[in-house]
Amino acid sequence: MIDLIDPENYALSPYSVPVIIVGGLVAALGLAVVARERMSSASLSFLAVCGSVCIWLVWISAVYSSRTEEVALVAIKAALLGIVFIPTAIFVMATSLAGRMRELRAVVVGCVLFSAILYSSVLLTDSFVTGIESHFWGFYPRYGYASVPFLVFFAVLLTASVYIYFAAYRRQPEGAQKQRIGSLLAAFLISYVAAVDLLAAYGVAVYPFGYAPILVFVVLAARAIWRYRLTDITPSYAAEKIIETMSDALFVVDRDGIVRVANERSAEIFAAPASELIGKRLPLPIDEVLAGTEIYGKNAISVRDAEVAYRGDGGRERVLNLCASPMVSEEGEVIGLVCVVRDVTERKRIEEDLRESEERSRSLIDSTPDIIFDLDRDGTIAALNPAFEELTGWSKGEWLGKPFSAIVHADDVATASRAFAKKIQGEDPPSIEIRLVMKSGEYLDTEVIASRRIEHGAITGLIGFVRDVTARKQLEEAWKKNAFEDFLTGLPNRRHFFDSLSRSVAQAKRSDRMLGLLYFDLDDFKSINDAFGHSIGDEVLKAVGQRASNCIREGDMVARIGGDEFTVILSDVATRDEATEIARRIADAVRRPINVRGKRIRTSASVGIAIHPQDGTDPETLLKKADDAMYEAKSRPEDSSQIPIADISKRTAESV
Q1: Per-residue pLDDT at 654
Q2: Hey, what domains does the chain have and what are their CATH numbers?
Q3: Above 60 in pLDDT, residue 652?
Q4: pLDDT value for 655
Q5: Residue 561 pLDDT > 80
Q6: Helix, strand or coil for residue 305?
Q7: Are 65 and 18 in contact (CB under 8 A)?
Q8: Cα–Cα distance between 488 and 485 in angstroms, integer?
Q9: Degrees, nearest 5: CA angle 139-142-146
Q10: What is the distance between the alpha carbons of residues 504 and 569, in angstroms, rounded to a whole number?
């Protein structure tokens, strides 16, 4: 049996030196990207490409330097492990960077299996590699008929990868993501020239210089990745990272108390995978606490620092600190809750130890991730734990002996001072949220919990905890924004529209006023997407939404309810003609050419009109009538003097 790592089997060839150097550079690049991107899925797929290429180059250099044909034959079979998996790795990276991994998962699995089958044919038969030939650069393999499926597989996957990259490039607006995809596409296209190495394997004695385009690929890919990175910072990505890095358990529940989001910390506390918690009610003790509050009611208030005793399957009793904030719509309706649960068992134990031994307590206090403070009765800072330095950037020495109010945001000083005074006087106000001034000049959102310091029966100051709640606040804001805003145009979304329409109809009934509803979409919008691409189409939709918004009155609302469909609520119209005039203004505005990236896009809108109470007295009927009128308008032949607008009442009257 031939030992491939035995140096006696090789005589260093000058032609193998550049090959193995490039292989090492490729491996180094792959590892550097994984470290830089913190093992993101995109970086791991890039490492798979680099690993396959490295295996090919390292072992093909061994083939060049082999002393005998027998050694070269075994080395080429090792090199083919990388070669047969290169197209699969490139395809996996393309789907990952384009965000299509989930969509093409079955194809990816099939490609991996096919590569494994190809390599099995290399190991088990002589039909893939039929022999070894000697050239001036060293030994080189000769491929047989079994390599033909590999060539077809290689060509198909490389073509598919280029198509995926190009499609993703066209969809992206100008920015870092588009530049990154374009740069990587160029790098991979250049690397494909390395396929010239296949010529010698089929009898064309051309020196296999494939390592040269691979070297160019390394340079271009490294430049693109270091400049643009591989992972985009998007709202969803940021929200995921906030949830992942939280040290507390986080739940997001809907208005029925069903868990919709749970982070991994929740799994640690409740000894169940996050996937098992999602879709069920909150763990029983927490659910019972929330059920006894007004948090789900119309006048919802937040729950702060509710202590819950919890005994898990292991029998260990924990003390949990619960904070819950309602997610409230713009109309004041509770649509869900954001719950943060902290295991404060250790903190409670620390509080007990503080009474027993100051020395023992100090070591425990220094280990907590929250800021622990000690204030004298006049508000002077007497002691701080190391977490203060970690969270604020200040050293403890810079603040000991100074008033606590000096480190509080100017707008929060009054709130903090009132709470301090009440606590000293013996009252027990709830915890407060204030901003602290960090050394960087930025502000840290915190929640402060304090207790009176009593010595010899007298209140001598306060001790307490300061908790960083930045992540929780960011998450609350993100959920509120996404619930009611259309992600593309920034207009109210479908849910917001229906809530507003129901409210407007109710107000119109109470005040006995007319209400107008316009429903319009773009004529043949599909042709714009087909001709110019979806990114151009998205810009057109944004422009249409803006133009429609400019045509309405104060108090009216334009919403995008899906695709190219828009609605307009006219909260108070005196006559049907007034609604028709606004519809005509919108149709005229949409017909004006839209300039997008140097292109003049022409489109038009068909508008349907429905009036409350003549055409209906409930939101569903009004929307259907406006929709019917829009399709009536769309069916009319359009000429230069006619704008496609239809009034459902007039159409009904004409049919009678």
Answers
A1: 37
A2: 7-229 (1.20.1070.10), 237-343 (3.30.450.20), 347-471 (3.30.450.20), 485-655 (3.30.70.270)
A3: no
A4: 33
A5: yes
A6: strand
A7: no
A8: 9
A9: 150
A10: 8
pLDDT at 580 (0 to 100): 93
Cα separation, 189 vs 161, in Å, equals 10
As a whole-number percent, the residues of the chain with pLDDT over 90 amount to: 25
Three-class DSSP labels, 6-68: CHHHECCCCCCHHHHHHHHHHHHHHHHHHHHCCCCHHHHHHHHHHHHHHHHHHHHHHHHHECC
Cα distance between residue 635 and residue 653, in whole Å: 18
pTM: 0.41
Helix axes 17-36, 211-228, angle to 10 degrees: 20
Extract the tokens encoding 176.
């870092």
**Over pLDDT 70: what percentage of the chain?**
87
- Structure token pair of residue 97: 């960077």
- Tokens standing for 579? 């609604």
Helices (H) and strands (E) in the chain, counts: 23, 19
Ramachandran category for residue 615: left, alpha or beta (phi over 0 → left; psi -120 to 50 → alpha): alpha
Asked which of 56-60, 93-97, 572-576 is least confident by mean pLDDT, the reply is 93-97
Q: Which tokens belong to 327? A: 């997610």
Q: What is the mean pLDDT of the chain?
A: 83
Q: Which amino acid is at 210?
A: G
Q: What is the dihedral of CA 164, 170, 174, 175, to 10 degrees?
A: 0
State the Cα–Cα distance between residues 484 and 473, nearest whole angstrom: 18
